[in-house]
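Hypothesis: this fold can be encoded by more than one sequence.
Test: take the structure tokens below, design a sequence, compare later.
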């Protein structure tokens, strides 16, 4: 079955699966309408985890006793990973997240983070080859609690891009001439809600709790690690055709940074006295 993606406007048209050189590539028919249990499972805080709408929506709850989380059943080398999320209101000090991370014990640490600090600030971070401390923070320009919004992370051999509702909000290019070290580890998808009051804008006003984050859109458009990094880096896969932003996306990205980004590790002379090499190509 065919699998296509038009990255210029983020319109999706997917087949259920494709077979590439005899190997399975996960490719959802639509992000909306997929059952949670097809690709995901609860990972902790099981009594704070709730399913809705025939398993097409889940809720993670946090109170004084516990938070909660879920994760994908497979890990992936490349893909365009998307999730629709509605955040809890009045949630200063509460961290709601959607991120990709390498499994512990498999070598160097790799991680791509979307962390919501309350309901008005988003922090992104990138760990490549075990090195992190690449935080950026933005003010969210919409009500994150009123309805669902789509958050996405593109990972391929050439570039990592974070999106909100199709708008690029972060770009990280591969500065290595050898493609595969950029895909050193496969990543598993995680989503969590937890008490971050010691650093995420706390203290928490517990009278506003319990805090409930909802997620939907459980299709996964990615290349599972069982295929190996060489296959997952193939230019035949639709998400690997994107080597950079289009002119329209570049204008959106620059406008976004000017209006909403208030912290960028690239410009933090205290933490990074030398301008980070990767920041030159952003």
């Amino acid at each position: 079955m065919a699998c296509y993606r038009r990255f210029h406007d983020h319109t999706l048209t997917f087949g259920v699966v494709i077979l590439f050189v005899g190997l399975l590539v996960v490719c959802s028919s639509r992000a909306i309408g997929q059952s949670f249990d097809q690709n995901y499972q609860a990972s902790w805080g099981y009594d704070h985890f709730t399913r809705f709408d025939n398993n097409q929506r889940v809720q993670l709850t946090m109170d004084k006793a516990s938070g909660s989380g879920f994760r994908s059943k497979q890990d992936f080398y490349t893909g365009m990973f998307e999730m629709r999320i509605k955040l809890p209101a009045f949630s200063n000090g509460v961290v709601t997240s959607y991120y990709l991370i390498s499994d512990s014990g498999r070598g160097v640490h790799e991680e791509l983070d979307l962390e919501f600090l309350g309901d008005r600030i988003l922090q992104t971070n990138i760990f490549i080859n075990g090195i992190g401390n690449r935080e950026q923070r933005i003010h969210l320009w919409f009500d994150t609690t009123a309805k669902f919004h789509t958050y996405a992370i593109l990972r391929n051999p050439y570039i990592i891009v974070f999106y909100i509702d199709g708008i690029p909000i972060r770009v990280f290019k591969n500065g290595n001439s050898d493609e595969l070290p950029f895909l050193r580890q496969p990543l598993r998808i995680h989503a969590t809600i937890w008490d971050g009051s010691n650093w995420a804008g706390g203290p928490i006003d517990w009278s506003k709790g319990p805090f409930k984050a909802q997620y939907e859109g459980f299709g996964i458009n990615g290349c599972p690690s069982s295929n190996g990094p060489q296959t997952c880096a193939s230019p035949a896969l639709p998400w690997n055709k994107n080597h950079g932003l289009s002119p329209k996306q570049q204008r959106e990205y620059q406008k976004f940074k000017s209006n909403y980004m208030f912290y960028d590790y690239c410009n933090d002379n205290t933490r990074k006295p030398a301008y980070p090499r990767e920041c030159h190509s952003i």
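The helical segments are 36-39, 229-232, 247-260. The first helix runs from residue 36 to 39.
Hypothesis status: open.
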